[in-house]
Design a protein that fits this description.
Chain lengths: 395, 395
C-alpha cells in the first residue's frame, strides 16, 4: 500500500465503520480490493499501552454485533452471555473488537458493495476470498487502533479458523488464541454440504448469476434451502431427537400431504425463511468458499506444524463431543501440530449434546475453560482487573 | 375388494408388470388407489409348494431391477453381487421377486401414472402413501403368484422398513425377515434431510406444483440439489475423506471461483445430474414422505414390541458402524422390541467405513451373515439345495 490512504471512521445504524479510502488490499487470488470498508463494534476501553484488546472473529452467518443488539433483527448480541462488564470476556478489563468479515453483508466490503469504478454493485464480480484475506483486512482495523499485539484472538467455527490463521500468519501480534469448534482445514464432508447450499442458490431463477441486486427479487428460496441444509449440520442428532423427535406441528395426526406436519419441518422452514431476511445470497457463496479453501497445512508445504513453528502464542483449543461438523478429531489434529511446533497449548473436549452450535450456547464447561484461560493469560500479560498493564508493576 | 378384478400380466422393456384392473387398494390416508399396476422382476423358479419365495424390497431410489440390467440405465442389477445362480440369494434354490414400490417411477402406479378418470397424470393429485401402503400393494403381487407364505422378506434402508412392516402386519406370511441398515421409525434428523430435498424440488420453477408432466421441462435443478444433499448422508465422513479429501478436480490449484474445484464437488454435481435422468421428482416427494411417516410403534399404541407380539418370523437385523443415517442405535431398538416380543432374532453390527450405502456394496461380513442366516432358515423351512420343499423328506 504505497498510495495515500485516508481513513474515515463513521458511526451509523449498523455500528461503526472505517473506510480505508485509497487502500488496496492484496488478495490471495492475485487481485486487490480497493477502498476497503470495515464495519465493527467495540466494547470496553483500550488501555494506554494497547495491550488489552481481544478480537472476536465471527462465524459464517454472524456479524459484528457480538455483544450488542443487532439493529436489523433487534436480537441481542450473539455472544452477549460471554462479553460484557463483569462477564468472562470482561469489558471492564478488555477492549473487545468484533468486525464483519470482508465478503460479508453487515457493512464490510462485500458483494453488495459498489465497485470503485461506479459500475454498480460487485455481485459475483467480487473476488473470491480466503480466510487469509479476511484476516488481512482485520489487520487494517487493528492497525487503525494502533494495536501492535492483540491480547487474544477468539472465535468459533469460521471464527476459530480466523483465530488459527491470525496465529499462523501474525504470531508476533497474537498473545493468545482460542479456536473453538474449528479446524485447520475444511473437510470433504463440509465442502460437500457447502456445495449443496451454493447449488441451491445458483439454481434459484432469481439469482441471475449474482446480479439480482438490480432487480426487486432475491434468490430467497435457494438461500432458504441452503440454510435449511446447513442448519441440520449445526445441531446434533440427539438435540434434534430430544427437541423435535417425531412431534407433530399444531396437529393431532399427519396430514397425508406435504405441509410441515412435523415440528422439525416447521422449524427448518422457519430457519430458512428468517435467514433470507438477514443474509445476502452472494455473501453466502463467498464466505462458504473461503471456508472451503482454508487449509493451513497446504499453505505450509503440507506440514501443519510448520504453520506454527516457533510460536509464542498461548493456545486454548476447544471442541464438543456431539459436534459432527467440526468433530474433536479435527481439533486433535490442530493440537498435535501445535505440540509438534512446541507451542503452549491447552485442549479441552467438552461433553455436550448440542452439536456444533454449542459454541454459541450456554455451555458451562466452555465458559469455565475460557474464563480460566483468559485469567491466566491476562496474568502472564500483566493485565490487572481494570485492564491496566502497569498496575501490577506499581503494586 | 368386492368388485371383479381382472389381472393382466405383461412383459415389456422394463421387465414385467401386472395390472390389477378393477382393484381398489385401500390406503392409510383413507382413499383408495384404483387399477393398481405393479412392475416387477423375478429370478429363479417357484417350487411346487410355493415355499421358496424371497421378496426383495428396494430402497428410496432403487427399482425392481435387483439382479438384472436396468433397461434404462444399462447398469447391472443393484444387488447382482448377492442374487443369482450359486450366489448367496441362490436363484437355483429360491424364487426371487422384486417389485417397484407404488409411488415409484419404474413402472408401478405412481404420480406419473394416468388417473383412471382420463384427466391426465396424477402429479401431486396422487395420494400420499405410507410404507404400509407399499406393502399392501406387494401383497397383491404375492397373492397373484399364489404364495401364502414368503420364505424371506429382505431389504436395506427403506427396503428394511418394508421388511419390518411385512413382519409386523403379515407375520403368518413371513417365514423370515432381514432388515438391513433400517429402522422402525424415521428419525428427526432423517425427516429434516428429506424436507430439505423436498423444498429444493418445490422451489424449482419448473416444478409447477407437480404438474410438470404437461410441459417439456422437469424440475431438474431442484431434484439435483435434493439428490446431492441426500447423497452426503449415504456416505460416511471417513469415505468422503479417504475417497476425495480435499483433492482438486482436473486442476493444480484452486480457481478462486465457483467451479467444481474439489473432486467432492464434481462428484456430487455428477450424482445430481445423473439422478434426474433416472428419477421422477414427484416420486421423490412421495417416497420420502412415506419414509418420514413410518413409525411402527405409533401404529401399535406406542409400544414397539406390540408390533411383533407372538411373531414366529425369524429375524436377522444388520447395521453398519459408520452408518449415521440409520445408525446402529436404531437397529438396537428394533432388536430390543423383537426380544421383548419373544421373537427369534439375530443381530449383527458390521464394522464398515462405507456408511449407509454399505448395504449395496461388497461387505463380506454382511454377505457371510446373510448366507448363514438364509441357509439356517432354509433348513428350518425344509428347503433343499434345489429349492424343493419335499426332497428332504424323500431322502
Amino acid at each position: 500500500m504505497n498510495r495515500p490512504v485516508s481513513k474515515a471512521q463513521t458511526k451509523n445504524d449498523l455500528g461503526e465503520t472505517v473506510l480505508f479510502k485509497g487502500a488496496a488490499l492484496k488478495l490471495d487470488c492475485g487481485t486487490a480490493l480497493e477502498d476497503i470498508e470495515i464495519a465493527f463494534r467495540t466494547y470496553g476501553q483500550l488501555n494506554a499501552e494497547k495491550t488489552n484488546a481481544i478480537l472476536i472473529c465471527h462465524a459464517l452467518t454472524m456479524d459484528q454485533h457480538a455483544a450488542s443488539e443487532n439493529p436489523l433483527s433487534g436480537k441481542p448480541g450473539w455472544w452477549i452471555d460471554l462479553i460484557g462488564a463483569g462477564k468472562i470476556i470482561d469489558t471492564d478489563k478488555y477492549f473487545v473488537i468484533c468486525s464483519n468479515v470482508i465478503g460479508g453483508c453487515a457493512g464490510s466490503t462485500g458483494p453488495q458493495s459498489l465497485k470503485p469504478d461506479g459500475s454498480g454493485p460487485y455481485g459475483t464480480d467480487f473476488p473470491v476470498l480466503t480466510i487469509g484475506d479476511m484476516v488481512r483486512a482485520q489487520t487494517l482495523l487493528i492497525d487503525h487502533f494502533g494495536i501492535d499485539s492483540l491480547f487474544c484472538v477468539l472465535g468459533g467455527s469460521m471464527g476459530g479458523m480466523q483465530a488459527l490463521e491470525w496465529a499462523a500468519t501474525h504470531p508476533e501480534r497474537v498473545f493468545s488464541a482460542v479456536p473453538i469448534a474449528a479446524s485447520t482445514r475444511h473437510s470433504s464432508q463440509n465442502i460437500a454440504f457447502h456445495e449443496v447450499g451454493r447449488q441451491a442458490i445458483i439454481a434459484d431463477p432469481h439469482f441471475l448469476g449474482g446480479r439480482y441486486y438490480e432487480t426487486d427479487e432475491r434468490p430467497r428460496k435457494g438461500l432458504g434451502v441452503a440454510r435449511m441444509a446447513a442448519h441440520i449440520t449445526y445441531l446434533s442428532e440427539t438435540t434434534l431427537q430430544q427437541k423435535f423427535g417425531r412431534n407433530l406441528q399444531d396437529r393431532e395426526a399427519v396430514s397425508y400431504g406435504f405441509d410441515a406436519d412435523f415440528q422439525i419441518e416447521s422449524y427448518l422452514r422457519h430457519q430458512g425463511m428468517t435467514f433470507v431476511e438477514r443474509f445476502d445470497a452472494n455473501s453466502y457463496l463467498y464466505i462458504t468458499r473461503a471456508m472451503d479453501y482454508f487449509d493451513l497445512a497446504a499453505d505450509h508445504g503440507g506440514n501443519l506444524a510448520a504453520a506454527f513453528e516457533g510460536t509464542k502464542t498461548r493456545f486454548c483449543v476447544m471442541s464438543f463431543t456431539s459436534d459432527w461438523l467440526f468433530p474433536t478429531s479435527e481439533s486433535v489434529q490442530t493440537v498435535r501440530a501445535l505440540n509438534a511446533a512446541g507451542a503452549n497449548v491447552s485442549f479441552v473436549e467438552i461433553e455436550s449434546d448440542k452439536g456444533h452450535d454449542a459454541f454459541l450456547l450456554d455451555e458451562p464447561e466452555m465458559h469455565a475453560t475460557l474464563d480460566g484461560f483468559l485469567k491466566s493469560a491476562a496474568q502472564a500479560r500483566g493485565l490487572t482487573a481494570s485492564g491496566s498493564a502497569k498496575e501490577a508493576k506499581d503494586d
